[in-house]
Structures are given as structure tokens and as C-alpha cells.
Amino acid sequence: MIDGPDAGAAAPGMQAGVRLRITEIFHSLQGETSRVGLPTVFVRLTGCPLRCGYCDTAYAFHGGRMVDLDAVLSEVESFGTPWVTVTGGEPLAQRACLDLLRALCDRGFSVSLETSGALDIAPVDPRVSTILDLKTPGSGESGRNLWGNLEHLDPGDEVKFVLCGEEDYEWARSVLAEHAIATRCPVLFSPSFHDLPPARLAEWILRDRLPVRMQLQMHKQLWGEAQGR
């Protein structure tokens, strides 16, 4: 958790003086989840306590710029789209992220949150669609999964598994059944970009008749691994 003077924490329900450390704010097409293809504003917060082996946003671990909440909201509004995704890094590592999510919802945006699942999602505004990225063994961070988070999911949320190979797939299939996740919310299986051929994952899903949605990262199909796309 980023708790120092730059954390931008505020009392519950308060926005005055709230600041966030921002890596980037950009306008693109949503490349994942059930919102895939929608023109979306992405607010990428800086900092993450995890170090997943397949991470494609390591540039967001450090640096960034301190921005007042009102300035963030103004920049988001300037793009003229109703869809906003708050991501990272790990956005919940900044406590002020909760204020940002609440403020975006208050202004009428349709908001999604991309979070690792290693931090508590209970305080997240219920109007937010939480995309919970459960960490597989191939990520190197599966021991950080906070399993209690599953109890806070509702049908508007989604659970994502990024799979590096067959071992990850079998692990995810077991977790899916053990926790009956597909009865709580939609489930996404995504092949790790450099590790698992998409067609192989598709065949496994069809073979086992899993109640999941396979997804590819559309933004990478369009722009590769360019930052801010």
C-alpha cells in the first residue's frame, strides 16, 4: 500500500485535497473483458506490490506524476466517452483510488477496475465493475491471491485468469469448480501473450466444456505492446 504523503488518502466520502500518482491517462479501445471494443478512457495508477512474470506494464511500477483528483476527472471528461477503466500497476495500492472510483461513478461514468486480487475489494464502490485477476502459478504470484475477495463479487463483476500453459489451465479449471465462480459472475480465460498459443487454449476450453469466455488482448492485436494503447 502506498501510504506516505503522496498517497492522496482522504476521509471516506471526502474528495478535497485528494491526489493520486498517475502513470498515464489515455483514450483507446478496451482490449479485454465483456467491454472489449468500446472506446474507453484508461487511468493508469502508479505502483504495484506484485511482480508477475508476464507483466506488460512494469513501467507503471515507479515514477508517475502527482495529480489532483479534480484534474484527473477533468482530463477523463475531455475525451467525451462514458466508459472508464482504472488500472495499474495495482490501482488499489493507492488508497485514494477508492475516492477516484467513487467520483467517476458520481459523474455518471461506467467504470471498471482492473485489480490483481491481492488487495481487498470490499471497499470498492458497488457501482464499479471489478475485474479480478486471479494469479495463476505461472505468474509467480499465486500465493498472493486474497480468496475472500470472491465473496464480494456480484454479476456485474468479472474474474480473469491469465494462463501461461497447461499447468495454469488445470489449476484455473480446479479453482473454477471449487469456488463455483461462474455462478457468481462471468469468467475470462486469457492466454499469456508470449507463452500460450491461443488456439491451444481454445481447444482445451471446448474439450472440457468450461463455462468461460476466452479472450485475446485486442489492443495487442492492433498495436502490439506499445505503451499507452
Q: What would you say this structure looks like, in words?
A:
- The protein is of the alpha/beta class.
- The chain has a single domain (19-223), classed as TIM Barrel, CATH 3.20.20.
- The chain has helices spanning 69-77, 97-106, 166-178, 198-208, 218-223; strands at residues 19-29, 39-45, 65-68, 83-87, 110-115, 129-134, 158-163, 187-191, 213-214.
- Strands 3-1-2-4-5-6-7-8-9 form a 9-stranded mixed sheet.
- The protein is globular, with a radius of gyration of 17 Å.
- It starts with 18 loop residues before the first strand and ends in a 6-residue tail after the last helix.
- Mean pLDDT is 91; it is low at 1-14.
Keywords:
alpha/beta; 9-stranded mixed sheet; TIM Barrel; 229 residues; 9 strands; 23% strand; disordered N terminus
